[in-house]
Amino acid sequence: MPVKEVKEGVEHIQILDKEGNVDEELEPDIPDEKLLEMYRDMMYARKLDEKAFKLQRRGDAGTYAPVKGEEACQVGPAHALEESDWFVPSFREAAFALTRGMSPVKLFRYFMGDPYGNKVEDTHNLPVSIPIASQTLHATGIGMATNIKDENEVTITYFGDGATSQGDFHGALNFAGVYEAPVIFFNQNNRYAISVPREKQTASETLAQKAKAYGIKGLQVDGNDILATYKVASEAAERARKGGGPTLIEGLTYRLGVHTTSDDPSRYRSEEEVEKWKKRDPIKRFKKYLLDKGVLDEEKIDEINEEIDKDLEEKVEEALEMGSVETENMFKHVYDEVPQRLKKQLEKAKEREGGDN
Ligand SMILES: Cc1ncc(C[n+]2csc(CCOP(=O)(O)OP(=O)(O)O)c2C)c(N)n1
What we know:
Elements: E1 5-7, E2 10-13, H1 32-57, H2 71-80, E3 86-88, H3 94-99, H4 104-111, H5 134-148, E4 155-160, H6 167-178, E5 183-189, E6 192-193, E7 196-197, H7 210-213, E8 217-222, H8 226-241, E9 247-252, H9 271-278, H10 282-293, H11 298-321, H12 340-356
Parallel strand pairs: 2-8, 3-4, 4-5, 5-9, 8-9
Antiparallel strand pairs: 1-2, 6-7
Helix pairs in contact: 1-2, 1-10, 1-11, 2-8, 4-11, 5-6
The chain binds thiamine diphosphate.
Thiamine diphosphate (TPP) binds next to β4 and β6.
């Protein structure tokens, strides 16, 4: 595809600029109905973030990692892939999961500490992975397996800029390259790994150029431009299905909110920086494009907002009605035989709970 710009030998693709003006030469041909779905999916994720945040603040949910600002990195590729493709997330991909049809109730329950929230069902969606970059190895493994089984499925995995400093990431890219695994490695470069800025993560000019060392394709995309993320993911998937192997996509984006609900970003980044990125908000940009195109109007915007608000209210209620999660769950599912020291911790936790009553 024609490339907008080449930086440090790495292609950089942008279709919607910061103001929401489209480059007609690069504009993908997406039916209006699908464009509207993409907009709704972004809005849904944005509003779910707010709900999850409130649930945490009032003590009904645990730590939550918001998507705010990174919706285009997730909703675009989710629309570019097939249901039979594999989704291997880290912990910041609520927008992708929801677009893939994951129930918001299940998502809320995960953040309430309920094992049901991470239960693998009969889909090709893997559960949340907290150990940074570990999921990239799982993605390579799935890609190698689909090759052996001769299945025409593509795997997409997500990880942050900080994850590229982990050995797992390098192992995953190396073997994906050697075995030509049909994997899309989507790096959400949101500029920070908690408080550590991207510049302290690596001396490389870009993260995408790391692909070169592993003999695979690497490119940068404007991660706040949903038309571009859709397009690069579609092309990477097509390449992978034709036996062209893996692609590393570096999505340049920004975390508009907190790292998680236990973070205070004002301690490590300036208000001016955040304000600059607010102007590049991926939803604002896409909305302008849809308004210009006549796909969206103010009435439709209100209609979508109302529908999402109503749905989310119901989903929150449903999740809360499922009740509180027993502390014991924290100690289940890891060991077949729970070690003595963990048994002691459980006893103490139960004593404390008893004391509160
Ligand atoms: C192996 C490992 N080390 C440390 C942590 C603690 N931790 C949680 S999130 C995080 C930063 C991750 O940053 P990045 O990969 O850029 O992703 P982001 O959170 O910005 O999406 C760290 C260090 C962890 N979860 N796993």
